[in-house]
């Protein structure tokens, strides 16, 4: 089920559905060089890693990232012509891939302030809407998301806990929910299982971390 999705580690995600796209490549162990599009949610080191971008990009790869990251993009190794910068709420299309930038921010803690205008993404490929939330808590913006697949951070501390992420999944009702952002840097390796348990059958949950 949803075998086109791989959570490589932490929030590093690879989806192959007509196109091959990556989100926040990090601790990449293979030289893939197959990315059509790389999405970066924000500039924390475990989400924007130039050395890992180098392992998945090729000469035609497009990099999509928040406008607030403009100053650090020189290190990406991707030329300006292949960089698209977005603000929360923006929509665009790249090679038949429809992209929506969703606000991603904390509520009641300071790690990911709303003023930074960092994002998650809804990416539509071959009719499937994949929501990759980035580093966020439950907030008014994410509760409006409509998607088929929701990839949600569950590790707590900097993002939602497993139980909070399950509450969001139940609210937005995707066809399937997949946990991310646990087992490396932050979060226990068992947080993915806790997330599935907290869904309590109200939304199907799948573990896709390798």
Lay out the secondary structure.
Elements: E1 5-9, E2 12-17, E3 19-23, E4 37-39, H1 50-56, E5 62-66, E6 83-86, E7 91-94, E8 97-103, E9 119-125, E10 128-132, E11 149-153, H2 162-172, E12 176-180, H3 191-199
Parallel strand pairs: 3-4, 4-5, 5-6, 10-11, 11-12
Antiparallel strand pairs: 1-2, 2-3, 7-8, 8-9, 9-10
Helix pairs in contact: 2-3
Q: Compute the gyration radius: what is it?
A: 15 Å
Enumerate the spans where pLDDT stays under 50 for 5 or more consecutive residues: none
- Assign a percent range to the helix content: 10-25%
On the 0-100 scale, what is the average pLDDT? 93
> Which structural class fits the helix and strand makeup?
alpha/beta
Would you list the SSEs in sequence order as H and E? Answer: EEEEHEEEEEEEHEH
Separation of termini? 14 Å
Q: What's the architecture, going by CATH?
A: 4-Layer Sandwich
CATH topology annotation? Metallo-beta-lactamase, Chain A
Count all strands and give the number: 12
* Fourth-tier CATH superfamily name: Ribonuclease Z/Hydroxyacylglutathione hydrolase-like
Share of β-strand residues? 25-35%
Q: Sketch the major β-sheet.
A: 6 strands, mixed
Shape: globular
Sheet with the most strands: spatial strand order: 1-2-3-4-5-6
Can you give a write-up of this model?
- With 210 residues, the chain is an alpha/beta fold.
- It has one domain (5-199): Ribonuclease Z/Hydroxyacylglutathione hydrolase-like (Metallo-beta-lactamase, Chain A), CATH 3.60.15.
- Helices cover 13% and strands 29% of the residues.
- The strands form two sheets. A six-stranded mixed β-sheet has the order 1-2-3-4-5-6, with no helix packed on it.
- A hairpin with a 2-residue loop joins strand 7 and strand 8.
- The longest helix has 11 residues, at 162-172.
- The chain is globular and about 45 Å long.
- The two termini are 14 Å apart.
